[in-house]
Write a structure and sequence with these properties.
Elements (H helix, E strand, L loop, with lengths): L14 E2 L13 E6 L3 E10 L2 E11 L6 H4 L4 H20 L4 E6 L1 H5 L3 H12 L4 E2 L2 H12 L9 E7 L4 E7 L8 H6 L17 E8 L3 H7 L6 H14 L16 E6 L1 H11 L6 H4 L3 E2 L1 H21 L8 H17 L5 E4 L3 H13 L8
Helix pairs in contact: 2-4, 5-13, 7-12, 8-12, 9-11, 9-12, 11-12
């Protein structure tokens, strides 16, 4: 079956990649920085009607959480790598004279004994004021960023954000939401949510959410001592599934034709690139792509068949990500084993886009699309 992108994928907040050599139009610029367990990523964007346009971006694998599982602390080398990346971010923010920004750190800094010390060091050496956000806000912002991908016929929605140090899951009931406003109902969750609360003004209700303290980096580190590739993968998948037992929708009944998973992470976008057979990553082809559980399982089996050496040679994975893709795939397999779906939508968007949307929405600079 030919892969399809939902029509709602053109709605806000659609991030448009920067065009080299083009200057931003006059108007306010916003920045969002996400310091995660594995990467430091930043977007600079400006409002553009009902969406926003990316003016500049930065991404660097800093491996901040390397060794955290064993010591409970951020290592000196990982902190130095992070500081180097943040100095570049600080230069970009100064260059564009950004006044409106949100700079956040997530799971690695939440868990590390010296997480607060890093935040102070960053401020002293770069001038950047990072804040360590709670897992709930991280989940909330991931949900907001994925709102444009919600299909009109979705009654039950599971948003999954597979990070480096943690994985956030949010289950949302949309049965009482008019089909034409289901995407908008998700966008209006930027003010926060609690499981079991009353629906928001559009009728969307969060049934439950969970932050599992296992992401692609932390799960990989748990089984570094297992030599067998397939055995390590099976153990990782089972371990993650065990962590879902307290998630209320674990045994929830749903109609598969009206159930949608939206996955946001490097794992999901890499699987999508493999599914499409891309030789070079293309965000426009990946973002909004829909795959079934069966199709994803086939890709994961291909990864296992390749083995570590084969994955290193695969242009969609590469040497640096071959181990991380298998821990991410183990998480994905555990989720699809629990909740099979005809449509897992791929989101090449996440915390940064959610941060940008929340800021712009609060300032009233985005025009809502009329339905």
């Amino acid at each position: 079956m030919t892969p399809k992108r939902p029509r709602s994928a053109v709605a806000i907040p659609k991030a448009v990649e920067p065009t080299a050599g083009k200057k931003a139009k006059s108007g306010p610029l916003y920045a969002a920085l996400d310091l995660g367990t594995n990467s430091c990523r930043m977007l600079i964007a400006q409002p553009d009607g009902a969406q926003f346009k990316v003016v500049d971006s930065f991404s660097k694998a800093v491996q901040l959480g390397m060794g955290l599982e064993g010591t409970g602390r951020l290592s000196r080398s990982s902190m130095n790598r992070t500081l180097q990346a943040l100095r570049i971010c600080a230069q970009k923010l100064k260059q564009y004279r950004i006044k409106k920004m949100r700079l956040v750190a997530t799971e690695a800094c939440r868990r590390a004994e010296n997480g607060d010390a890093l935040i102070r060091q960053v401020r002293n050496e770069t001038g950047l004021k990072l804040e360590i956000i709670k897992a709930e806000e991280e989940a909330q912002l991931a949900v907001v960023s994925c709102a444009p991908l919600v299909a009109p016929d979705t009654d039950q929605l599971l948003v999954v954000d597979i990070g480096g140090g943690s994985t956030e899951l949010v289950w949302i009931d949309l049965v009482d939401v008019a089909p034409e406003t289901r995407s908008r109902a998700i966008m209006h969750m930027h003010n926060g949510f609690r499981s079991g609360e009353k629906p928001n003004r559009y009728g969307a209700k969060v049934i439950d959410w969970i932050s599992v303290p296992l992401g692609v980096a932390t799960l990989r580190d748990q089984f570094n001592d297992v030599d067998d590739d397939a055995g390590r993968f099976a153990l990782m998948s089972l371990m993650f599934e065990e962590k879902l037992e307290q998630f209320i929708p674990y045994e929830r009944d749903y109609k598969k034709d009206h159930f949608q998973i939206i996955g946001t992470s490097g794992t999901v976008t890499t699987v999508a690139a493999s599914y499409l057979g891309l030789k070079r990553y293309d965000r426009n082809k990946v973002d909004g792509l829909s795959m079934s559980s069966i199709e994803i399982e086939a890709i994961i089996h291909d990864y296992l068949r390749m083995g570590p050496a084969g994955r290193q040679q695969d242009p969609r994975i590469g040497r640096d990500r071959q181990a991380l893709i298998m821990s991410g795939a183990a998480i994905l397999q555990a989720l699809l084993r629990s909740w099979p779906t005809h449509k897992l939508s791929v989101a090449d968007r996440g915390l940064r886009e959610g941060l940008l949307y929340a800021q712009m929405s609060a300032d009233g600079v985005l025009r809502e699309r009329k339905i």
